[in-house]
Each structure stands twice: as structure tokens, then as C-alpha cells.
Design brief:
By secondary structure, the chain is of the alpha/beta class. The protein contains 10 helices and 13 strands. Helix 1 packs across helix 10. It binds nicotinamide-adenine-dinucleotide (NAD). Nicotinamide-adenine-dinucleotide binds next to helix 1, helix 5, helix 9 and strand 13.
Length: 271
């Protein structure tokens, strides 16, 4: 496999630490302009066998010209917006980890059309959450009521709208600060709304998925709980995730979710 990776931040670098034993012949990484030198330096702390197979590029033209077989986006919403359609149109399957970007229905439609045009597939990994298999399986039966509760330590909400009205550094009680639809959550809290978006896309859609966001000073990581009531099944999922070292907003399970997509692509079994 020639793996394409967009972004070399927290998820990208953690992922690199896990690729050593996989049958990957080449890796091309798309970084922002001006970031190549720093990325090459950071590669020195990665497994040597992985580093030796890696090339960095800093523009989408060079990235497309490299002709990866399979691309994983680990960069952010603007990367999905700016590069997603071109990659799919070029016929390459794309794993989108910044799934909250798809709350923008115009972007979603553009990417679906690009995937059709390129006969490629946009793959939406579960990321930090689980149970999307049964959720997506039941969705065609309709009438889903899903309530999602996302809890993180106060510092993980820094830089979001709640930080403008609450002093997160001194918060000493559990604070439910947002209630709304998954679409509203994805707009107001884009970097923290990936799980809500994944649940919405797998289940009943952005406008029928109810989201509560919580800051909890006692939380040591990010936890995701949801309850589903549907005509065919009722279930709940409760996941306590360890945050990754490089970014308190990101759960380590997300890195492994991307790894799973790569392993499934390599086969011989996909699960
Ligand atoms: N699906 C999920 O459950 C889930 C969970 C956690 C994070 N995420 C998303 O994954 C993404 C990455 O998370 P992270 O913790 O690695 O973030 P990060 O900020 O540590 O790393 C992102 C990296 O991508 C680079 N980047 C951003 N835009 C780029 C572009 N246009 N071209 C090339 N590189 C670009 C940045 O410079 C940075 O190095 C975020 O969008 C985050 O919201 C999804």
C-alpha cells in the first residue's frame, strides 16, 4: 500500500508510531506550507522503518501527483473542505476523521458527488466512539431517538464558546453548557463535535440527534455516552477514553480507529 496522510499533528504522529508492522511500502504526508522542515525533524523520533518510507509534500497538487492508494485525513475541517473532493474525484478512497466538517450539508453533498464521480468511497471511521455498526445497521428502519452526552475536563473546552462565559480554570462543579442538535453542536463546537457528527451520520441525521456537552473538573479523559431508542432495539454506549498526550481534545481511541481503517484496507480480513 502507498498510504497518503493529511496532517502531521497529534493523530498523525501517534498513528505513525503504530504503522511499523504493517505492509505499507510508501507513505506520503501532506503538511501545511512552511511545515515541511519541522515535520522532517519530528520524523526522527518515529520508528526508523516507517520514517524511511515517508515523504512530505506541502501542497495538494504534489499530494495528488504522488498517487497514494488510500488516504487518511487527520488534519481538520478546512482540510476536508479544501482537499476532500479532489482526492475522491481522483478515484482514491478517503478516511475522514474530522467528521464534524460534514455537518455542512453543502460540503457533504459535494463530497458525495465527488466520490460518485471518482468511483471512490468516503470512509467515516467511528473515531472516539463505538457502536456505529449497530447504529448504522438500524438506521434504515427509521424512527431513531438518540441522545448523546459528551464530557471532557474543563481545559479540553478552552478556546470554545463556553470559555467566553465561564472561567474554566476555576470551575469546581459539573457544568452542562450546551444542549442542542448535532448540527448546532457541530457549528458552535466544531473541534469537539466529531462524535456527535459520527452518531448523526450513522443514525438519524444532524437535526434528530440530541447533544449535551459537559465540562467536569473530575474527568481525567473524554467520555462519550449515548442512548438509542428505535423500533428494533434500545441500547446505550458509555466510553471513557484516555486523552492523547499531544491534544487534550483528542482521544487516543481515535488514532486506533484510523489504524483500524488502514488494517481493514490491507486485509485479508476486515472487522
Ligand atoms: N472523529 C473523531 O472522533 C475525532 C476525534 C478527535 C479528533 N478528531 C479530529 O481530527 C483532526 C486532527 O486532530 P489532532 O488531534 O491530530 O489535531 P492537531 O491539531 O494536533 O493536528 C492537526 C494537524 O493537521 C495540520 N493541518 C491542519 N490543516 C491542514 C491542512 N489544510 N493541510 C495540511 N495539514 C493541515 C495541522 O498543522 C496539524 O499539524 C481534528 O479535526 C479533530 O477535530 C476527530
Amino acid at each position: 500500500m502507498h498510504l497518503g496522510v493529511i496532517g502531521f499533528g497529534n493523530i498523525g504522529k501517534e498513528l505513525f508510531m503504530l504503522l511499523e508492522d504493517l505492509d505499507i511500502a510508501r507513505i506520503t504526508v501532506l503538511v501545511r506550507p512552511g511545515r515541511m522542515e519541522a515535520a522532517v525533524e519530528q520524523l526522527e523520533s518515529m520508528p526508523q522503518a516507517v520514517a524511511a518510507r515517508t515523504t512530505f509534500v506541502d501542497g495538494i497538487t504534489a499530494f495528488l501527483a504522488a498517487q497514494s492508494d488510500f488516504v487518511v485525513e487527520t488534519a481538520g475541517h478546512d482540510a476536508v473542505l479544501n482537499y476532500g473532493a479532489d482526492i475522491l474525484k481522483s478515484g482514491v478512497d478517503l478516511v475522514v476523521v474530522s467528521i464534524g466538517a460534514l455537518a455542512d450539508s453543502a460540503l457533504y453533498d459535494t463530497l458525495v458527488a465527488a466520490a460518485r464521480m471518482g468511483k471512490a468511497r468516503m470512509i467515516l471511521p467511528p473515531g472516539a466512539v463505538g457502536g456505529l455498526d449497530i447504529l448504522a445497521g438500524l438506521a434504515p428502519a427509521g424512527d431513531m431517538q438518540l441522545r448523546y452526552f459528551g464530557t471532557k475536563p474543563p481545559k479540553a473546552w478552552a478556546g470554545t464558546p463556553v470559555a467566553q462565559t465561564v472561567d474554566l480554570d476555576t470551575l469546581d462543579h459539573v457544568l452542562e453548557f450546551f444542549r442542542g442538535t448535532a448540527r448546532e453542536a457541530a457549528c458552535a463546537y466544531p473541534k469537539n463535535a466529531n462524535v456527535a457528527a459520527a452518531l448523526a451520520l450513522a443514525g438519524g441525521g444532524f437535526d434528530d440527534t440530541h447533544v449535551t456537552l459537559i465540562a467536569d473538573p473530575a474527568a481525567t479523559g473524554n467520555s462519550h455516552r449515548y442512548e438509542l431508542i428505535s423500533p428494533l432495539a434500545t441500547f446505550s454506549v458509555d466510553i471513557a477514553n484516555k486523552a492523547s498526550g499531544g491534544n487534550v481534545k483528542t482521544s487516543l481511541a481515535t488514532v486506533y480507529s484510523v489504524l483500524r481503517e488502514i488494517r481493514n484496507r490491507l486485509g485479508p480480513i476486515a472487522i
